[in-house]
Give the backbone structure.
Amino acid sequence: MALGCSCTYGFGLEENQAWPALLEEKMGIPVYNFGVNGGSADSVFRVLATHLPIIQSRVLCIQAPSDYRREIWFEENDEPERIGGWVKERIDLLGEKEVALNKKKNYYAIIDLARRYDCEIRFFRSNDSNENLRELEKPYASDGKHPGTRWHEYVANHMLSVSSDLNRIYDYVD
């Protein structure tokens, strides 16, 4: 299972150019792309909790979305409202303490689900300040904002090269 935001989804690319498709090609086994456009750690947990009991994947590949995103559920809606920097009227809900606590809650819950279903977690944080990684985003996808094919190739190779990466998740959360 591949989980994350629009970068995992492959926004602005052909379906076969996104890192989950590249990973599937390299591994020779199905990789389900559960990237959510505008997704958050809330989205990763929600999708994982919904689909892992059905699919029972043994490997979870998670591209960490921005910490400053949320899913907010309103009773009258069938789907969550996704908030982040692009929704200015709700950004005030995302203070530093709230962001840190929400990140911890989600990733600890994700780790718990992985343990419950005996899954390995491979983890990639796309917003690392690594300049080489920033350069790999170019040329950008067709929307001019999302990472292009070189970045997706890098992420697919990263997911192939790492094994269970819980220490990296704990370092990211704590």
User: Anything to note?
Assistant: Strands lie at 2-4, 33-35, 59-64, 70-72, 81-83, 120-125. The chain has a mean pLDDT of 91.
